[in-house]
Amino acid sequence: xxxxxxxxxxxxxxxxxxxxxxxxxxxxxxxxxxxxxxxxxxxxxxxxxxxxxxxxxxxxxxxxxxxxxxxxxxxxxxxxxx
Length: 82
Known about the structure:
Elements: H1 7-17, E1 21-25, H2 34-44, E2 48-52, E3 70-73
């Protein structure tokens, strides 16, 4: 299955936040895309990009990591606004 990872949007958000250290969090099904995401973000921002290798069970599963300026989560499904 092909996903639109919206990498240009992620890069824009990193620049907007002036983030120097960014953590990306992916569900298991998208982890094979991790290096593609990191390569794109490194090439299009000045941020250090880190990959969360732990679990990701949805938007409420936020890693407790200090020293990160911005966390970007990807998922398989659209996030529904309530």
